[in-house]
Amino acid sequence: MYxxxxxxVRELLVTSGSxxxxxxxxRQMSEGARNLSLSGHVGFDSMPxxxxxxxxxxxxxxxxxxxGETGLGKSTLMDTLFNTRFEGDPAVHNQPGVHIKSxxxxxxxxxxRLKLSIVNSVGFGDQINxxxxxxxxxxxxxAQFEAYLQxxxxxxxxxxxxxxxxxxxCLYFIAPTGHSLKSLDLVTMKKLDSxxxxxxxxxxxxxxxxxxxxxFKIKIMSELVSNGVQIYQFPTDDETVAEINGTMNAHxxxxxxxxxxxxxxxxxxxKARQYPWGTVQVENENxxxxxxxxxxxxxxxMEDLREQTHTRHYELYRRCKLEEMxxxxxxxxxxxxxxxxTYEAKRNEFLxxxxxxxxxxxxxxxxxxxxxxxxxxxxxxxxHDKFDRLKKLHQDEKKKLEDKKKSLDDEINAFKQxxxxxxLLQSQAQQSGSQQTLKREKERKNFF
Length: 448
Ligand code: GTP
Ligand code: MG
What we know:
By secondary structure, the protein is of the alpha/beta class.
């Protein structure tokens, strides 16, 4: 038990809502309360410290998506922002579609560990037909939400050490044309704005003059508003950052310059880009908005970007997905509908449908069997008819042959009779012939 002064106890108990304890305090006070001196710290104001320690222990993760046309300086800006060299070779730009490339890095600053993912939309804007350029980006963002949702829906969840790959911010690189946004930019940002926090930035801002840049910024913002594109607004509800965030909102889109090259300016080494006519200092606020972007993205609003991703964008995805799956919070009479009830209603609906399908299939089966049966009967009848026809044909044929055989037999018999008669005649003729020869021989002999 903590040694605390009575007034402190009262405050503590009353705020905790315990009327029993409040009555006890009142009784103690009326009895002449003891005066206890505070020898140690009471305690729960250390909660934020506990949270900080826990978070530092776990480390943080932050996922950045860079969208922008080829060669706008995306990789250079990432290297400049995190003061390191992430990617090696430039990406290939002759592919038929946009593909997403994600790289994970572990960074450490003092004792804070950061798992950083830099996701690139490789080949964005390279195609002749750019209609579907946004698709693979949207699909990637949704896939990360889906993975998180699946983890949440598991019975054994491991969200505390889950590698969160949801995109926390999308840096949208706008080409420094000085004119207006391209339709590719507008379409893509419109498709992404309900899924991710978009921070638009004008890339390679050193290639556009100061006056043109100001006009370009105004033009971009008015185009975004008129096309209903919602970009990320730095939050102004926390009074500690309200002022700086409010000011920075007015500077959007940030015009940035990136460089990993360090040049000696005065007696300091500074990140800069050197040209024949002068030097652009990346971290000089008069030259570009790089410092503003770094401040807003990393120092001031990193946690808000993570929070917005979870509470706004993921929540929207989750709600749509669960509604799509048939889950709802209220029944048609607007009464609360629990998950269990939804599940049971869905299950009954499913079973009903299953039964209906089963019945349909059974009927279909019976019909098919009947059809097949009648088809078979028909075929059987046809076979029988064919058999009868053939049998009759065969019998006719057989009868014809028998008749033919009989007539042939008759002919043979007649022939045989004729033959015998002929033979008889022939032999008789031979006999009479030989008798006449003998008679003539005798007559000749008698003559001589
Ligand atoms: P891909 O990944 O191939 O799409 O290109 P990327 O957008 O990552 O561009 P990258 O950072 O590779 O830079 C392309 C070229 O632009 C390099 O030559 C950079 O030095 C140059 N570059 C980068 N940032 C800037 C900038 O702010 N201003 C100017 N003028 N050039 C820049
Ligand atoms: Mg690159």
